[in-house]
Amino acid sequence: MISRNATFYTFDALSDLSAEIGIIGGGPAGAHLASRLAASGREVIIFDPKGAWEKPCGGGVPTRAIREFGFLLEASSYPNKLVRRVTIISPLERRVTIQLERPFAIYSREVLNSLILDRAVEAGAEFVRNAVVDFAREGSGWKLTADDGRPFRIRFLVGADGAASFTRRRLIGIFPKQDLALAFGYNVNEPIGSNGHAEEVIVRFPRDFTGYLWAFPRVGVMNFGVASKLGERTSDELRRLLGGFVQDYYGGRPPDAARMSFFGAKIPTLDVRSWPGLKASGEGWALVGDAAGFADPITGEGIYYALKSADLCADALLGNGHLGCGRGHETAGMSHLDEPPSDSPQYSEATARYEHLWRDSFGRDLEHASYRLPRFYRGTFFGHIFTDAMVALARHHRGVRTILERALMGEQSYLTLKRDLIRRAFQFF
Ligand SMILES: Cc1cc2nc3c(=O)[nH]c(=O)nc-3n(C[C@H](O)[C@H](O)[C@H](O)COP(=O)(O)OP(=O)(O)OC[C@H]3O[C@@H](n4cnc5c(N)ncnc54)[C@H](O)[C@@H]3O)c2cc1C
């Protein structure tokens, strides 16, 4: 794609300028950002070698995400399963079932990714089904090289390429081991009507374990997984734990191997010491979603943060940042003559605004979740294992169930979780 007014650019290589903004990665973060920017008239190009694909994931989209990103449920031709019933099993085998007032959605990741990517293309973003294998500064912008050797020239670069982000590695370095969790899972094809539990999510907290197991019903598929802090357990131990969980789910007999597909991947779950210095942007570039480290360190949930960080990055680039330095909506129809070079003050303002926006919106809460992580999985509550006490209290106490319900819907702040639990628990006595 050659932009409409390419001949007017004061760019080093006028003839092959490809777009104003180049996004590496077409998952939820990259595709949603592209959609927002393209809908405001900005020229955007997204690169992803896989397009919409079955990324290793539970596919659970919390209530808060479907409330804030209404387009998810409006797109009725992209099937999902709405779930209102969650059973939690404690390390001491106590169980509680929580009924959610408002459901969350579980998607096949191929379906969810195609919903968001299709929207971006409909909004006018250019999609290139290639990996970016190299990028370098060129003049006041960037030159990107695709895996088929084609060069692309852009002014502003966004890394939305996931937890193993190549963009991040080249710009600021990979996540250290303490900032990652390891997750494995199985997708098990379910013939329709064959599974009695298929409307219910199950979450199990194993003993002495910084993480959890899950069973998520999707349309026609059961998704099982286990996630734990990287390095705490070996891959073999995690796979054994997962295998036992799947077998228990099916009443002691593993499902037919032909119905099962295995997956594994890392999730950013930042250590509490990593948050204060965390940078999601620099001169002429920004990172969104997993590439930036934006996932809940306790649950590993990252789809909401992928969409939210994309939204905030779009707000910052479009000048809608509510920090008193925005340029308002006038950028929506901006002429290419006005588009800034990557080192311009306008992009510098936008990246500074983005840093403020993500930290204010969710950064502090996620930082607090990192602080809570060891206490949540391995701490105690009045002398009992915390997760076991939480389940025990929830069984008998509606107030505690409400806190858990809010947490499951993604609407309970970690900053107030312990205080709220204590308050509700003491209302009981
Ligand atoms: C096992 C597992 C279970 C999970 N379950 C949940 C869950 O239930 N709910 C939840 O909210 N979160 C869950 N997560 C986290 C969630 O998957 C991520 O947080 C989310 O996908 C992040 O979106 P993203 O767009 O930032 O990155 P991704 O979805 O990882 O997308 C990155 C994209 O970049 C592309 N890419 C990579 N390199 C390049 C390159 N060089 N050039 C071009 N493109 C490139 C990839 O093909 C990919 O499509 C889970 C994660 C794992 C591993």
Explain this structure.
- With 429 residues, the chain is of the alpha/beta class.
- The chain has 11 helices and 19 strands.
- Helix content is 33%, strand content 24%.
- A hairpin with a 2-residue loop joins β7 (132-138) and β8.
- It folds into 3 domains: 6-52 and 110-176 and 272-372, FAD/NAD(P)-binding domain; 60-106 and 178-268, D-Amino Acid Oxidase, Chain A, domain 2 (2-Layer Sandwich); 377-428, no CATH class.
- It has an 8-stranded mixed beta sheet. It has a 6-stranded mixed beta sheet with strand order 6-2-1-10-17-16.
- The model is unreliable at 1-15 and 322-337 (pLDDT under 50).
- The structure holds flavin-adenine dinucleotide (FAD).
- Residues 24-30, 47-50, 55-60, 131-132, 160-162, 166, 183, 185, 225, 265, 267, 289-291, 295, 300-304, 306 line the site of flavin-adenine dinucleotide (FAD).
Fold blueprint:
Blueprint: E1 21-24, H1 28-39, E2 44-47, E3 60-61, H2 63-68, H3 71-74, E4 81-89, E5 95-106, H4 109-123, E6 126-128, E7 132-138, E8 141-146, E9 151-154, E10 156-159, H5 166-171, E11 180-189, E12 200-204, E13 211-218, E14 221-229, H6 235-249, E15 260-268, E16 281-282, E17 285-287, H7 303-318, H8 345-378, E18 380-381, E19 384-385, H9 386-396, H10 398-408, H11 417-428
Parallel strand pairs: 1-2, 1-10, 2-6, 4-12, 10-17
Antiparallel strand pairs: 3-5, 4-5, 7-8, 8-9, 11-14, 11-15, 12-13, 13-14, 16-17, 18-19
Helix pairs in contact: 1-4, 1-7, 7-8, 9-10
The structure holds flavin-adenine dinucleotide (FAD).
Residues 24-30, 47-50, 55-60, 131-132, 160-162, 166, 183, 185, 225, 265, 267, 289-291, 295, 300-304, 306 line the site of flavin-adenine dinucleotide.
